[in-house]
Amino acid sequence: MNTEETNVEPEHEAKTKDAPEPKDAEDPVQVAADADATEADVSEADLDQDEQEKQPMTGGGDRAEDAPSADGEAVLSGEKNGSVKLKIPEEVEEVKFMGLTKEELLRVAGTPGWVRTRWALLVVFWLGWLGMLVGAVFIILQAPRCRDLPPTNWWNNGLLYQIGHVQAFTDTHNLKGLEQKMDGLSQLKVKGLVVGPIHVAPPDEAANLRFEEISPEAGNLEQFRGLMQTAHRKGISVVLDLTPNYQGSSGPWFANISVRNVAERLKSALVFWLNEGVDGVQLSGVEHVASMVPSLWSDIRAIVQNNTDERPNKRVLMGVTERSSAEEVSSLLSSSGVDLLISRVLCCRDMEATERARSIQLLYSSHSQTKLVWSLRGWAEGHLASLVGLAQVKLHQLLLFTLPGTPVFNYGDEIGLMDEGTKFPQMLWDLDEKVNDTLQEDRAERLSCRSFFRGLSELRGKERSLLFGDFVLLSNSSSSLAYLRVWDQSERYLAAFNWADESDVLQLSGAMLPRQATVVLSTNSSALPADSSVDLTNLRLGPGQATLLRFPYTG
Predict the structure, then answer these.
(1) pTM
(2) Coil, strand, or helix at residue 363?
(3) Cis before 514 (ω within 30)
(4) What class has domain 154-468?
(5) I need a labelling partner for 38 at 20 to 30 A (CA). Which of 52, 113, 150, 216 fits?
(6) Domain edges within the chain
(7) Which CATH class for the 469-554 domain?
(8) What is the CA radius of gyration of the chain?
């Protein structure tokens, strides 16, 4: 082989230089052998290169380390198989601040500078704490003190519902049917149920009077016990009317000569019924027995009103009188000692609003409102719709619920039940059923009346201003009336009424009144929608319209 014509790769130069120079005449066999060996070497080198290319470019352990350049960057080094090795310098570990050691802290803590700083911070802390304490005490002392709630009894917390004729109130015409109506009465938020009279009392026959026996037409003692148990579970108290001669014409206590005898018999009957669990007693004509037999009347009061170990709960003694003068009613309320006295103060249909306001103001100023009761009649006077007209039922419902005292209603007053020739019309219970087109309008009016009644009853039972708030007369004329009910910092309620046949404008202003108020309820919801705002300086009420407004306490 001629060396001058051979092109050898740089890596094989050393081998070529070291090889002996060929002779002029070589053995052909030797030349062939050398060619085979050279071919074998080339093939082996190719195989080695293929293997090396399969290796990762991180370099092998048999290769020399690449030296970093002078500027610290990585230096690429070539390998005979074309692979590249990248040298990455190690990252410098970040120095973390470890804070002072315990020994160092102890040395620093005792220095004068730190001691003064600690004392300064301590003084600032306690001065700030004492300042906040003094500020809190000052705010408490300067804030208006809440009024103590007045003492009340169960009959001051909601309406009393009178059922003078059990047979007319229920479908079954007895006390069992009355028990079945407790759910409906509970929905109306009735607080007390005044039942009867139901005892045996032949008209004008004092000798046959039996207080402790229930008339068979009304039911029996077992039914009455079931009624009381169900009522008490619903939170409704039961008052029993024990008026002696409730069916006669000679007066509620028969003839005058019989008053003493009847009062004596009543005393034992009261003990019997109170032991049965009744929550109070109602008596008509209290002025007669209180004046004619005062000692016996004192005994009657003591039996009902005094609590005992057997009867720890407070019982109510309710009286009914025919008197209508506010002065006479006030005098009887004081002299008789009854807890509540139903009278005819508001009963006159033609009474002007001015006289009505005067009567209310007189009774309110003379007695605690916990002893006042408001009604338009006794149990035998008839129903509200017959006394004032169906169009003004809602107006008088609003009046009775918002006056300072306990409202008393007859059964059916919540739906505008009319007497229709009898003082005890049959109660209507099918208002939720479908009716023909002829009765649809009447049904809708009764449902509206009941909804209005229920809304007022709910408010009366939960709003402090209506429960026991102060009564402030704002305005009154011959046909209109407006007053305010306020209690401490509770929401205020303003009731306004117009009895006239034409519209009236009330101009209400004063230190206690804002310019605007919100409508809660109105007898004419299209004219004064609920939640709408009205101007108190220009409050317009339509004919026979009434409204209840509210506004917040502002301090």
Answers:
(1) 0.76
(2) helix
(3) no
(4) alpha beta
(5) 52
(6) 114-145, 154-468, 469-554
(7) mainly beta
(8) 51
